Amino acid sequence: MTIYESDLPGVGKKHEVELDDGSRLVIVTHNSGRREVFRRESADSDSERLFELDDKLARQVGTLLEGAYFQPVQSTTIETLLGDSTLIEWVEVGADTEVAGQTLAESNLRQVTGASVIAIQRGDEVIPSPGGDATLEAGDTLVVIGPREACRNFAELVTEG
Amino acid sequence: MAAALLEFGYLFVVVALTGAAALRLGLSVIPLYVVGGVAAGPYVAGRLGVPYIADGEVIALLAELGIVLLLFFLGLEFSLDRLRASGSKIGRAGVIDLGVNLPLGISIGLGLGWSLVEALLLGGIVYISSSAIVTKTLIDLGWIADPESEPILGTLVFEDLAIAVYLAVVTSLVLGGEGGFMAVGRSLAIAFGFLGLLFVAVRYGTRLFARVLDIGNQEAFVLRVLAVVVPVSGAALALGVSEAVAAFFVGMGFSTSGHRERIEDLLIPVRDVFAAVFFVWIGLGTDPALLVAAVVPLTLAVVLTTPAKVISGYFGGRTYGLSAHRSLRVGVGLVPRGEFSLVIAALAASGTTPVMREVIPAFAVGYVFVMSALGTVLMQRSDLVERLVLRDESAGVEENGTE
Fold first, then answer.
1. Residue B202 and residue B253: Cα distance in Å, rounded?
2. Cβ of A40 and B131 within 8 Å?
3. pLDDT of A17
4. Where are the beta strands (DSSP E) in B133-215?
5. In a domain, B372, yes or no
6. Does residue B401 belong to any structural domain of this protein?
7. pTM for this one?
8. Cα radius of gyration rounded to whole Å, chain A
9. Do B144 and A7 touch (CB under 8 A)?
10. Using one digit for the tens of pLDDT, what is the confidence trace for B153-180?
11. How does pLDDT run along chain A (161 residues), one tens digit per residue?
């Protein structure tokens, strides 16, 4: 995906987003905060105005598009993308799982899945950079970093056992 | 006092009514404010024996503030760094625009037997496109999202810079014009000395500007901006230097202070009030009978400068790598003339010869009226223009469009 940005002196800024079908989404952000959204079918056709939003509404619609209120893919976990394939994920330790009660070293999670635990959240308490002797308890939230596939395996193992 | 206040109230009624009419008709407010001024002024309403607005000193002063604020905002939105960043493309399109239209206007003036200064004034009036009308029409028609908006707006930025230099020179020529070569030389030296110092001050005084405006209180903020712009412009004019260019430079200084958006939010309504007074005032001073005297230059200018602007814009669009069909739109999009042509007309009106005092202002009013309407209509019906001009090409085919 490519995004083109250009200045519109006296008006604001223009961003063009290439869509999968070869058309472009054109977003004009006025200095007043108003956003106008256009779609341009192909390079030589004229842009067609789709809709326009004031600043506040644009931000609200923006957070909806971002998925802050609703994650359509995985509803039980929150994830943040670092670069193209590395994720930070929050995973809750399930009650009937093997790892509940084990130390990090005993669980051998990093060797098995490839994802590392960078913090443990237990109620209000946070254990940052936990060592191998830190124990995992049912109900803990583990903050995990790793490649996408590793994070998925990790989540399966820890939440379902 | 009571009479003056009543007259002023009358002026705002005219502005409100013509503004409403413009909104209803989907036209730019600028030409209609001017027409409102002509109708309510001494030459029409006055001759009909109905109450009219006299072209008095108070209104002239407030109109002057309108000019100062218009140019201040131009400077505020102008950025040398941006011009440098997008540099050569804007430069090339802007130079083509300047190189075609200014000399053409000067030639028309000389061809009419006018003096060089008079011809220079005419050149400026026909050269400068209207940022206000062009930008509004780009947004209304949705061209703002298409590639042609970049060369159009880029050319307008270049014109802003060109008009600052132009006003600095021509103001000195008009105001110092009587005393011969030495006097002109001296007033030019004063102008460039003053503006040069001001330029250095705004270029390196960013921190000072930022500190002046670092205040939460809205009222104090607005007053501080005015307390810098108005006295600096006044000092310029007192020295015979263009007050408009001084205001432009102060605007440039404020644009890098980090307060640009707040100034825009809070002062645009102030600017709009005084700019409206300025447009009405231009109308007040226009005797429609003088339009008859200006009909020859007017016809010549409309017939010659419309295609010239389209052609220069077309080549400007080409330097941006746009197709023939989009480049043509760049030309059409630059046709409307407006506020800055009227600013030049106001300068001409303070001149010494009958051509400057009477013919050029009347010409400018007629020219802006025709070109603002013609330009907007051409933009709205650009499909017809494209079909007419690019007959041999099937409309809408992109040749080498690079975006």
1. 4
2. no
3. 92
4. none
5. yes
6. no
7. 0.76
8. 22
9. no
10. 989 988 988 998 899 899 888 877 666 7
11. 788 888 888 788 899 999 988 899 999 999 888 999 999 998 788 899 999 999 999 998 988 888 776 655 554 555 677 766 788 888 888 888 888 888 989 888 888 888 999 999 888 888 888 988 888 988 898 999 988 888 888 888 888 76
Mean pLDDT score of chain A: 85
User: Which of A10, A28, A44 faces B145 most closely, judged by CB atoms?
Assistant: A28
CA angle B314, B169, B29 (to 5 degrees): 55
In-domain check, residue B168: yes
Class of residue A85 by CB neighbours under 10 A (exposed 0-12, middle 13-18, buried 19+): exposed
Please choose, from the candidates B382, B370, B399, B371, the residue with its C-alpha nearest in 3D space to the C-alpha of residue B332. Answer: B382
Q: Tokens in use for A43?
A: 């390079």
Q: Which of A59-68, A125-134, B62-71, B119-128 has the lowest mean pLDDT?
A: A59-68
Query: Does A36 contact B145 at a Cβ distance shorter than 8 Å?
Result: yes
H or E stretch covering A15: strand A12-18
Q: What is the distance in angstroms between the Cα of A66 and the nearest Cα belonging to chain B?
A: 23
Per the CB < 8 A criterion, the answer to whether A142 and A90 are in contact is yes
Q: Distances in Å between the alpha carbon of A36 and those of A26, A80, A96, B143?
A: 8, 29, 52, 12
CATH of the domain at B233: 1.20.1530.20
In a domain, B354, yes or no: yes
Which residue of chain A comes nearest to B140, CA vs CA? A49
* Domain count along chain B: 1
Tell me: the pLDDT tens digits for A23-36? 999 999 998 889 99
Which pairs count as long-range contacts for B268-275, CB under 8 Å and 24+ apart, including other chains? B268/B73, B270/B69, B270/B222, B270/B226, B271/B66, B271/B69, B271/B70, B271/B72, B271/B73, B274/B62, B274/B63, B274/B65, B274/B66, B274/B69, B275/B66, B275/B69, B275/B70, B275/B339
CB pairs < 8 Å spanning A and B: 63
Residues of B with Cβ-Cβ distance to A8 under 8 angstroms? 144, 149-150, 153
Tokens read off for B330:
């760049």
Rounded Cα–Cα distance for residues B366 and B336 (Å): 13
Mind telling me how many Å the CA of A144 is from chain B's nearest CA?
41
Distance (Å, rounded) from C-alpha B101 to C-alpha B308? 7
State which residues form the domain around B311.
Answer: 2-389
Q: In degrees rounded to 5, what are phi and psi of residue B24?
A: -65, -40
Asked if B261 is an interface residue toward chain A (Cβ–Cβ < 8 A), one would say: yes
